[in-house]
Amino acid sequence: MRQAGVLLAAVFLLCACAGLPELGAERAALLEFELAGRIAVRYAEQAASGSVAWRHSRASDELLITTPVGGAVARIVRDAGGVTLTDADGDEHRAADAESLTERVLGFRLPLEGLSDWVRARPAVGPAAVAQYDLTGRLASLEQNGWRIEYLDYESAQAGAMPTRMRLHYPALELRLAIHDWKVR
Description:
This protein is an alpha+beta fold. It has helices at about 1-10, 25-30, 100-105, 110-120; strands at about 30-45, 45-55, 60-65, 70-80, 80-85, 90-95, 130-135, 140-145, 145-155, 165-170, 175-185. The N and C termini lie far apart (about 40 Å).
């Protein structure tokens, strides 16, 4: 049963159709990106899918996670005080960083620090990455921190275009992300 819960929670940590609340002008100026999309997760022998909305800046993150039919699953907020995960029952879980929080609540670490760079088709700061590019100069695949990221589609064929479909692999875990709405500043 824990594996099913872990799988569903992982699915809902990366995508959403639910809208994020409007930002004030000062916070909007700090925004690096906002995205919405769908996710599918395969963990061991189990699979699930869902939706998420993610607003990211250098200082904070906010993820709203929903089921495929729009029911709330979780809200994850990262700010200077740490990370808070509020589950569908309204219970709050806190940690200093997203990776330890997701490991404690979900049973494995999700690469939220690296993911903010990977979804923008660039290596994360930190350990060296192995990158391969296509003929147009777009990132085709990336290996970093034990993850292999494949870029399956982009908004356009030009270098600098944002990814719209990605597949992320980690031992016993596969995440597929389809981004249908990008706002980048």
